[in-house]
Amino acid sequence: MRTNVIAGNWKMNKTNAEAVEMLTELKGLVKDIKDVKIIIGAPFTALSDAVKAVEGSQIGIAAENVYPKASGAYTGEVSPVMLKSIGVKYVIIGHSERRDYFKETNEFINEKVKAVLENGMTPILCIGEHLEDREAGKTAEVTEKQIREGLAGITPEQAENIIVAYEPVWAIGTGKTATPEVAQETHKQIREVLRDMFGKVADKMIIQYGGSMKPANAPELLAQPDIDGGLIGGASLEATSFAEIVSAARK
Ligand code: PEP
Hints:
Blueprint: E1 5-9, H1 16-29, E2 37-42, H2 44-53, E3 59-63, H3 80-85, E4 90-93, H4 96-101, H5 106-118, E5 122-127, H6 131-135, H7 139-150, H8 156-159, E6 163-166, H9 180-198, E7 206-210, H10 218-222, E8 229-232, H11 239-248
Parallel strand pairs: 1-2, 1-8, 2-3, 3-4, 4-5, 5-6, 6-7, 7-8
Helix pairs in contact: 1-2, 1-11, 5-7, 7-9
Bound molecules: phosphoenolpyruvate (PEP).
Phosphoenolpyruvate binds next to strand 8.
């Protein structure tokens, strides 16, 4: 049986002081919840303080991006070695905002996945179709390509430590959620692709749903057999709404 994983993605929000305030509140709200994995993705500037703020709790901190080299002349970038050195445990990779606004390709995303694994952290690989893909009946094709190319060269042993976040782009930040049935159908297809690539390990892999998940719709989404948690944007900015989603993920 898989443990649900609820991850927040703060995106370009929160100063250090705001980050510490929210995490301190969240720590108190979830202190008795041991049967859900909890992750918060924070901007680079807040990571160090965020790691310190969650010390002694079960909350793990994620970076929202990484550059796939250990060090060197890459002005403005942050390496996996740097992230690991401050206690970051997870890295969100290939979010649709990075794919769309910063033109990240599956090949580049694959380099990041490998670099994160090599440094002992867990990648959260985001995939998902645009509205025009879904309307053209191409959801399975698009997500399969993102998985196969994003996870090229990954072994089954490594795959066990990878989280996949299925986020239909048309549902991110729009208030439009995939219905539980539509989301489950895609999650099932995703697990089939993972099974084809990694065999039995696919049954242990976490596939999160992301896209306007809120306390009100989380229980139904999380009740689906192939939905193993959520990647939460807007509703992760506030401790109470995020903690409600964490509670809904208890089995
Ligand atoms: C996201 O950005 O990963 C996300 C799912 O955002 P929201 O929950 O706001 O749709």
